[in-house]
Write a structure and sequence with these properties.
By secondary structure, the protein is of the alpha+beta class. It has six domains: about 100 residues, Phosphorylase Kinase, domain 1 (2-Layer Sandwich); about 160 residues, Transferase(Phosphotransferase) domain 1 (Transferase(Phosphotransferase), domain 1), CATH 1.10.510; about 90 residues, no CATH class; about 140 residues, no CATH class; about 45 residues, no CATH class; about 60 residues. The protein is elongated.
Length: about 725
């Protein structure tokens, strides 16, 4: 391409190794050069951090912020650029451009990548490709995308010009948009992070929490649509108001499998909740099943058409606001999704994570259980055993759960690109992958474990598959499953910080059997050994920190009330069974809606687990004693009377008031000298309760009525005029 005046001059030598030979591409936040490694005599691609909106080049090479006020965003963006280089460097996949090195110079940053020669996808297919050609291309592309997502990386800029096809017909993903997304979020720049026709609606929002694997799936589907239809689908924001999308069946200019076209339409749904959640899920529809023969459907030639006439900025703003509104009302993206971002959110276990009972009928909560690995988990084959050297055989973790430990080792090695082939893997293959990993980190290539090596592997930050329940109703980031026997609400952990041997996300699950009576409920958490059994586990919800204690039922209610009353995430923190701290984060968005929907269908009695009752008892001396946060009126009254009986000095305790999901207030005033009256009332808010209590006091003839106390059934807004 033509030389850019802001780019490094041709012939510039970087770190005495790389000679700039040309420009491959420029963007809002960086410049990519073709360069030559003069020491190894090979061509490379070098990406330079150069945010055009607030950077300039002085003395032909040095990059500087344009002003002092722009220094902070410049430095922050550089840190994101470095992080992208580090994450890419950990990936070694034949269909992903490889980052080989990062260095700093000229007051900016650079990372060196393999130079990929080939044609962009649209140049490789100047006319609509055949079905077999697309299938051959898609298999390695989907593998690459799955590897990216497994490492917690999203491309965010998939389009025909960011997929190269090499001379051997193999594709490669290039030019990631992750650091551009981060910079746009910081600098309020939307145009730099979207590609009309290829970017999904959630990418018009600078908040990446709404984005996830489903976002890249949309972009790849738009790329396929472009290849078979001759142009991309309509821009995402225009589809939110007046969708002029022409289905792949009608737009395709050739003969393609019906399932293939259905899969494209599925992935191009404007609403993220309606798309496939993972590449694995989409692949089943997109590619042919080897065990079956699928017919090819003849389709009509029809080019995509239609667009909204509003200005880009106005349409994008409306679309983003609509997406945010849906997210707040529980119909938003899967969650996080990071992401993100929606869930089906993430940021997040795939199907069938096994669980350990911890609720009403459970034996223990959050403790090491030593159970067998769950069905369907990626485990090593039956030959897994401790047949290594003395240091390996002495590992306590292998002695207690060899299958689980080797399963996690295999999982990490596979996600990092050091283990390939059959899954589950044979022990010999795992050891070979371990040798490759040891070589990469500069350790002796023994293929065996010791405590240090095991800790290193367990500390690797590899992403787990998102949690998704097929066929379930989605409430925010919680799933509601219903069948003839039971109803279940569940969510996967959005974050796991610390050492574990899990290969799927821990799941928090609440189940109600239809035949159950009263408030019977089954609570389940996670699988395998998570927390050290003897160590305490704390529950954090915003600024509230408590220790999970008491009987199983009280622990379960403690967790459920935190999920109901807190916005964001709740964390369970304790000592990992494999050393160091361990923290699990679970989403709260959608929990109450999912739980109430379960109660409506499978038994309203379980609402006592999340609803709040308060009660007040009064003794013969007119002293009141209150309790809040109880599951039923009877329980609240009983607790209030018990409190009064244990603390009152005058006795004569009797029930005085009860309130449900409300606030209660008591006021008192002097009717005449030494003749006092009181009045109490409840309201949906504490202010309403206070106002009504003062009126009740005045109605009884009280003069100068003043508030004595007020509190709400959930325990908030508690206040007393005295120390009683």
């Amino acid at each position: 391409m033509d030389h850019d005046d802001t780019a490094l001059p041709i012939g510039t030598l970087l770190v005495d190794e790389y000679r700039i030979d040309g420009i491959l591409g420029t963007g809002g936040f960086g410049i990519t050069y073709r360069a030559h490694d003069i020491k190894l005599d090979v061509d490379v691609a070098i990406k330079e951090y150069f945010p055009r909106d607030f950077a300039s080049r002085s003395n032909t090479v040095t990059v500087r912020p344009r002003s002092k006020g722009e220094s902070q965003p410049f430095e922050w963006g550089l840190s994101q650029f470095i992080e992208e280089a580090r994450r890419l460097a950990r990936l070694q996949h034949p269909n992903i451009v490889r980052c080989m090195r990062y260095f700093e110079g000229n007051d900016t940053g650079y990372f060196v990548m393999t130079f990929e020669e080939g044609r962009t996808l649209d140049a490789y297919f100047p006319k609509p490709p055949q079905q077999a050609e697309l299938d051959a291309l898609l298999r390695p592309l989907l593998d690459a995308l799955e590897a990216l997502h497994a490492a917690g990386i999203y491309h965010r800029d998939i389009s025909p010009d960011n997929i190269l096809v090499r001379d051997d017909d193999s594709p490669v993903l290039i030019d990631f948009g992750a650091s551009r997304q981060a910079m746009a979020r910081r600098t309020q720049t939307v145009a730099a992070i979207v590609k009309p026709g290829y970017s999904p609606i959630e990418q018009y929002d600078r908040e990446t929490r709404l984005q996830g694997a489903w976002s890249d799936i949309y972009s790849l589907a738009a790329t396929l649509y472009c290849l078979i239809a001759g142009g991309p689908p309509p821009e995402a924001f225009s589809r939110m108001r007046n969708d002029s999308y022409v289905s792949a069946h009608d737009a395709a200019r050739g003969a393609y499998r019906r399932d293939f076209l259905d899969a494209i339409d599925w992935a191009l749904q404007p609403d993220p909740d309606e798309r496939p959640v993972t590449v694995r899920e989409w692949r089943r529809k997109l590619l042919p099943n080897p065990s079956s023969t699928r017919s090819v459907t003849a389709v009509t030639r029809l080019a995509p058409s239609g667009s909204d006439s509003k200005p880009l900025a106005e349409r994008a703003l409306e679309a983003v606001e609509k997406l945010k509104l849906k997210s707040k009302t529980g119909a938003g993206p899967k969650a996080a999704r990071p992401p993100q971002g929606g869930l089906r959110w993430p940021d997040y276990v795939l199907r069938g994570a096994a669980v350990v009972m911890v609720g009403v009928f459970a034996v223990r909560l959050l403790m090491s259980d030593g159970t067998a690995p769950e069905p369907g988990a990626a485990e090593p084959a039956a030959d897994v055993r401790t047949d290594g050297d003395a240091a390996e055989r002495a590992l306590p973790a292998l002695a207690s759960d060899a299958d689980g430990v080797w399963g996690r080792v295999a999982f990490v090695l596979r996600r990092l690109g050091y283990l390939h082939g059959a899954d589950p893997a044979a022990l010999a293959d795992i050891r070979s992958g371990l040798k490759r990993y040891q070589h990469a980190i500069g350790r002796p290539e023994t293929g065996t474990l010791n405590q240090d090596m095991l800790n290193r592997i367990l500390d690797e930050a590899v992403a787990l598959d998102p949690y998704f329940v097929p066929g379930a109703a989605v409430h925010g980031r919680w799933f509601l499953e219903r069948n003839t026997e039971r109803c279940t609400v569940s969510a996967g952990a959005t974050h796991i910080e610390g050492r574990t041997i899990v290969t799927e996300r821990p799941v928090l699950r609440f189940t109600r059997t239809r035949a159950s009576d009263g408030d019977a409920l089954e609570t389940q958490l996670a699988e395998k050994s998570l927390f050290e059994a003897a160590a305490p586990v704390t529950l954090t919800a915003g600024g509230d920190v408590s220790t999970l204690a008491g009987a199983d039922a009280s622990r379960s209610r403690q967790v459920m009330r935190a999920l109901r009353h807190h916005d964001g995430e709740v964390q369970m923190t304790g000592a990992s069974a494999y050393g160091g701290p361990l923290r699990l984060s679970f989403p709260t968005h959608g929990f109450e809606a999912a739980f109430r929907a379960m109660a409506a269908e499978c038994g309203a009695g379980i609402l006592s687990w999340i609803e709040d009752w308060g009660a007040v008892a009064r003794d013969s001396g007119a002293v009141v004693w209150s309790v809040v946060g109880k599951g039923s009126e009877a329980e609240a009254k009983e607790a209030a009377l018990a409190t009064c009986a244990s603390k009152s000095q005058s006795g004569g305790c009797e029930s005085y008031a009860s309130f449900h999901e409300q606030c209660w207030a008591l006021a008192a005033g002097e009717r005449r000298k030494n003749d006092w009256v009181s009045g109490w009332s409840v309201g949906t808010t504490v202010d309403a309760a206070k106002t009504a209590a003062l009126r009740a006091c005045a109605k009884e003839g009280g003069k100068g009525c003043e508030l004595i106390t007020h509190l709400c059934s959930d325990g908030s807004n508690e206040w007393h005029a005295s120390g009683d």
